[in-house]
Specification:
The protein is α/β, with parallel strands linked by helices. It folds into two domains: 7-50 and 305-397, Aspartate Aminotransferase, domain 1 (Alpha-Beta Complex), CATH 3.90.1150; 73-298, Aspartate Aminotransferase, domain 2. Helix content is 42%, strand content 13%. It contains 14 helices and twelve strands. It has helices spanning 7-14, 18-33, 52-63, 80-94, 108-120, 136-142, 162-168, 191-208, 269-285, 290-298, 306-322, 345-354, 379-384, 386-397, and strands at 39-40, 103-106, 126-131, 147-152, 173-179, 213-217, 240-245, 258-262, 335-336, 357-358, 360-361, 371-374. Strand 3 (126-131), helix 6 and strand 4 (147-152) form a beta-alpha-beta unit. The protein is globular and about 60 Å long. The structure holds pyridoxal-5'-phosphate. Pyridoxal-5'-phosphate binds next to helix 5. Residues 44, 108-110, 134, 179, 183, 217, 219, 245, 247, 253, 258 line the site of pyridoxal-5'-phosphate.
Amino acid sequence: MKGIVSDEIRGYMEHSSWIRKMFEEGIELKKKYGDANVYDFSLGNPDLPPPTQVKKVLADITANVDKPFSLGYMPNAGLPSTRAALAEKVSREQGVEIPASKLIITCGAAGGLNCVFRAILQPGDEVVCPAPYFVEYGFYAGNYGGKLVSVPSNQDDFSLDIEGFRGALNEKTRAVIINSPNNPTGRIYTEEELNRLAEVLKEQSAKNERPILLISDEPYRFLNFDGVEIPSLFQLYDASVVIGSFSKNLSLAGERIGYIAAAPNFPDAQVFMAAVTMTNRILGFVNAPILGQEIINQCTDCEVDMNRYRVRRDLMAQVLSDAGMEYYLPPGAFYFFPKSPIEDDVEFVRMLVAERILAVPGRGFGMAGHIRLAFCVNEKTITDAAESFKRAMNAAKG
Ligand SMILES: Cc1ncc(COP(=O)(O)O)c(C=O)c1O
């Protein structure tokens, strides 16, 4: 008898993500050695507590929960007050005015990306992104028959290969997705490289006789360490959307709250916003969670203590340098993407596991020969791992 599960999903499950594999490996190691003796850098799950204001808002919600519709359905685009508060925040970040009508609330950035892809993709359409990339992009595009095409970034500093993009764009390209600060590299794209990318997109859009959408996935916007500016995409390219999230800046990853905001001169904006409002509904999200919307309504300007992440980044840099690893110092987000000392990154990850370190092979992000280390873990885990990193490096060098 044939199985109930589709061939496609069965295939996905068989080649399940490296992050997932590490997660499972981690459970086994922790059972054997105890949590404190396993150095788990495999997951981007923020460990800092949410800001105290979040607790206060939740207490207020609890006090009012007996009112009718206090937790009811709402417009599919989200609470009007939350949309307005976020539109103001995005306007400040982008340096241009965005009305609330150009912003909808979604179930995290992941939900937002799915709403956008559902609204624009038809089977066979292509979405282009720089590699390495957040592995879920391929699944999200695939959900609607789209195909993810990646353009390797320059190896030294993970800057965009603009000519690579020019070569990858064609009549099937419906969107380009960038992620800055980047997971897994921490790279923040400069205004100059985004400008050059925008020029290439404009040229291909003219050939295609329809705009290619530029999607900027920005869950890590708040995490830039060395005063590096995050440029305004809305001022560079009209057919652009920003997808934001509160998973990381408020440590609310489990509450699933984010947004899609469109540029002020977005072409046919009304139709696009109506389309993503509709896909938010028909994908089964209906509307983003009410608790999250109430929280961000009153915590628009709050964030976790990002200095803690800076301290951790610097500690991690020291540990990796001491072990003799080659890496790009991330100016943003909470990941390192160092070079594997041997060609086979999976083999090196195995050597790290032998030292009770959990990391993800770079090939899981579309760029082999590297590993990803997430430093959203306590400082002690980073410093305690120092000797293990050294031993794994010695083993790799033979
Ligand atoms: C680059 C990137 N995009 C999107 C997401 C999904 O974020 P959210 O929790 O807001 O759905 C993540 C989560 O780790 C991410 O790293």
